[in-house]
Every structure is written in C-alpha cells, then in structure tokens.
Specification:
Blueprint: E1 14-17, E2 20-24, E3 35-38, H1 41-49, H2 56-71, H3 79-94, H4 101-116, H5 122-151, E4 160-163, H6 178-187, E5 193-197, H7 204-216, E6 220-223, H8 228-234, E7 239-242, E8 246-248, E9 253-256, H9 259-269, E10 273-276, E11 282-283, H10 300-303, E12 304-305, E13 308-309, E14 322-325, E15 332-335, E16 338-340, H11 344-349
Parallel strand pairs: 4-5, 4-7, 5-6, 7-10, 8-11, 10-15
Antiparallel strand pairs: 1-2, 2-3, 8-9, 9-14, 12-13, 15-16
Bound molecules: 5-S-methyl-1-O-phosphono-5-thio-D-ribulose.
Length: 356
Amino acid sequence: MIPNIKPPEVVQSIKWVDDHIRIIDQTYLPNREFFLDIFEVGRVWEAIRSMRVRGAPAIGIAAAYGVYLGVKDLPEDGIQQFNTDVERICEYLATSRPTAVNLTWALAKAVKTAQDLRDEPVSRIKTALLDLAKSIHEEDKRICADIGKNGQELIPESASILTHCNTGSLATGQYGTALSMIYHAHLGKKKIQVWVDETRPLMQGSRLTAWELEKTGVPHRLITDSMAAWVMKEKGVDLVVVGTDRVARNGDTANKIGTYALAILAKHHGIPFYVAAPISSIDFSIASGSEIPIEERDAAEVRNVESKQMAPKDTPVYNPAFDVTPNELITAFITEKGIIRPDFSKNLEKIRPRQD
Ligand code: MRU
C-alpha cells in the first residue's frame, strides 16, 4: 500500500474564481489550452452539452456550481417561489446529458439542501448552495485520490494496462478514477506502460488521455480502438481499467461506447477487466443496466472527423455515446471504499450510502 502519494496535477478541469467557474474547454485540447469563464446557468448547460466540460464526476461538479449561478440573482422575498425555482433550474441542468448519474446525484443534493433550509432566509440558502458545490468538488478530489490508492494494488510491477476514453483530472475534480490508479502505480515506480484507445468518435483517448499522460510522464502508446484485440494477443495486456458513467445495483456498467467490446476482448484473452467508480456513479435506484438511459449524439460526430467530412454527407448514422457492459464481464470495481468483487448485487449494497 502506497501511503498518500500526491499524484501530478495535470490541470484543474474546473475552478471556482470569485463569482464564477473557470473551466478548461476540452473541445480545444490537445491543440490549445483555452480557459472559459462561465457566469450563468445557461452557459453551464451548454458547456456540459457540448462537452467543453465532460467526464461523469466533472459534469456533476459543474452542474452543482451551475445551480448556484442560476439562483444567485433571484429575488430573496419568497421562499416558496425560490425553492420552485431551484427545482426548475435543476430539472433544466439535468437535461444537458442523460447517462452520467453524477449529474442527477449532484442536482438531487442541491434540491435537498434548499428544502432542508426552507425555514431560513433565501440569502442563507444561496450561500449553502455555493458551499454544497464547493464541497462536492473538494470531496471528489479526495475520492479520486482514494480510488487511485486502492486500485494501484491491482497493478503488477511492469504492467501493461489498456484504458479507454478519458478518466483523468480532466474528467473529475482531480487525478481521475481509472487514471488515478495509473498515476499512483507510476508514482509507486511500477514501470507501467499504458495502451490508450483513441476512443472514436470524439477521441477522448487521443485528445485528452494521451495529453494527460504526456504531461505527467507516464509511458504510453496510442492505438485506434480496432487495434485492441491484436494488442492483447500480440503485445500482452495485464489488465484493462476504465471509468464509468453509471453502475446499476447488479454491477452492469455504462461507460464510453467501445467499453463493452473491450470487456468481451478481455474475457476472451483472460485479462482482468476493472471499473474505477466513485460511489456517486452507482445508481442504487436501478436494478440492472437495461434501465440506464443511453445518450445518442449528433450524426456529424460520426460522419466527420473534426470538420472534415469522412462519409457521404447524408449517410444514415447511429451514434450512441455509451454502452452497457454486463456485470459478468467485470472482474472488480475500485471505489473510494475499497475493491468490490462479485457477487456485485450483494457487495455493492454494502457500500450504499445510508441516506439513499
Ligand atoms: O462522453 P464523455 O467524454 O463525458 O464520457 C466520459 C466517460 O465515459 C468516462 O469514462 C466516465 O465519465 C468516467 S470519468 C472518470
């Protein structure tokens, strides 16, 4: 066990600055580090929808700040109207992206905060909503560090690790989930090497993960998604580790499209398949993955690479942003409370937060 290594700070995906949030606009990476100042809730919605800020924990954090930005200038003379407005703003933010449960988890906390304080002055509730966003943000940094510390134990010396999408500092408050495990193993001098799936169609692997790993000095090689099977067979992969957007009570796991295929490949090659998941990504209200809403995105993301058209202009497209990996393909979940192995229905229940 490596005690309290401080993983490298690549960048803070979100910062609270005086009276607004500043995000690194991930749509410009890796070519440009462009920081966007956001002062109002409509811009937060747009930033989440357009994936300027992305990754399940990061969109939960952004939404929590978004609630405060939405209420801060509301009139302070009627509590009933104010709380109706809080609910309306939360419902609105929840429409930005449907799959990551961290978004609705953070918004539910905001609604509860406002309801619990309904006997207090509105100005006090506004402050409490800002404090809530800051505490979700700070807590996520601690959770990601704990996931990294717990998960690095599963990474052998000189391991070859395959990962998908981006699960690092950009996707969270800091450090990441699957990437936090990788950072902790690297800092523990395990001489690891990471295979980075490019992650079509939006290239979170090549644009964001390769960028983070380069900045932090973690040895890595980029592959296209279709190379994963061959890499497993020819080069040897010791483990696959991914993040998640929503885990059902039975362990079925939604993550970036392509994750399910990787899990099947891992099983075929006898490779452990791990999911790094903060407890806020577990949706205890749903029994299985069939209840997870899967976001479908614009056809242009598949027809084009950036602005270059790569298919006939009207080619019909199917563009699900996520898939669901069935629980039987998952070796273990790595959470801030430790490593959870099957039987997932029984063992995830043991880490269910009491207030759920
Ligand atoms: O569409 P994205 O880029 O927001 O999808 C992100 C993922 O699928 C990540 O793997 C997941 O959110 C976990 S991030 C710690």
